[in-house]
Amino acid sequence: MSNRIIDTHQHFWNLSTGTYPWMAGDAMRPLRRHFGPQDLQPLLVENGISATIIVQCRHDMAETRDLLAIAASHDFVIGVVGWVDLESGNVPGQIDALRALPGGDKLVGIRHNVHDEPDAEWLCRPAVQDAVGAVISAGLTFDLLVRSRELPAATLLVRRYPQGRFVLDHLAKPPIAQGFSHAWHEALEVLAESDNVWCKVSGLVTEAAPGASVETFDHYTQIALAVFGQSRVLFGSDWPVCTLAATYLKVKTVAERLVAAQPELAGRFFHLNAIDAYNLG
């Protein structure tokens, strides 16, 4: 069993190259600066992280091109989950253009910020579903950035493409600070019935009340393990967004508590499941 650790969810951005509307407001002020490889690499060394996957956070192919360029020049980046316009009618052409760039061989997935769409059933639109089909046909994974509201639509999508690979980001962002949500739990269980969906244990610290202890998240991480099983859970930090609520070390500690009583899970959770989910070489 490998002891390698892959962080399957981290971000880089440069505010001089584009805008990030979701960063508006005082609460997001600490994130409104440049975050690049030079900021993350020391944390990876300190926490024993071997490799990462960068994930998009802007609806702009220019950002994806920038992320691929970073991946091309940094060996620790083994994958990029980028963005293409799913409503353009030309997803195959966009993917081909990205793959032709330096770092294009590290394009492993596509994501859209679905939870920001006004339409809760955006993923059910025929054009969008056809576009996701094109992503799958290109051999890429599709990341699901959804909350409870969009989980039913996500379930219909993954059932339409049982041959595809899907990764649920952040456990669909359970409203931890507001209290346990049975609606979220039930919808998560239904999605997990499809065995072509993996789940990232990531992004939880920013959903909890400020200063939440590591024990706060045990119930949620155990739910992820219970409904997805040992072969479909992944570690992700959601750095630097996580820094709004916790250090990188605390986020890793939350994840380590999940495997503490099940040593046989560690290799899958921290490494091998990422290879399966993103079809890594």
UniProtKB/TrEMBL annotation:
Q: Which domain of life is it from?
A: Bacteria
Query: Which Gene3D superfamilies does the entry link to?
Result: Metal-dependent hydrolases
What Pfam families does the annotation carry? Amidohydro_2
Domain Amidohydrolase-related as annotated: residue spans = 6-280
Query: InterPro entries from the xrefs?
Result: Amidohydro-rel (IPR006680), Metal_Hydrolase (IPR032466), Metallo-dep_Lactonases (IPR052350)
Q: Which GO terms describe its molecular function?
A: hydrolase activity
**Keywords from the named record:** Hydrolase
**Keyword DNA-binding in record:** no
NADP recorded as keyword: no
The record's similarity note reads: Belongs to the metallo-dependent hydrolases superfamily.
Specify the protein name.
Amidohydrolase family protein
Which species does this protein come from? Answer: Pseudomonas yamanorum
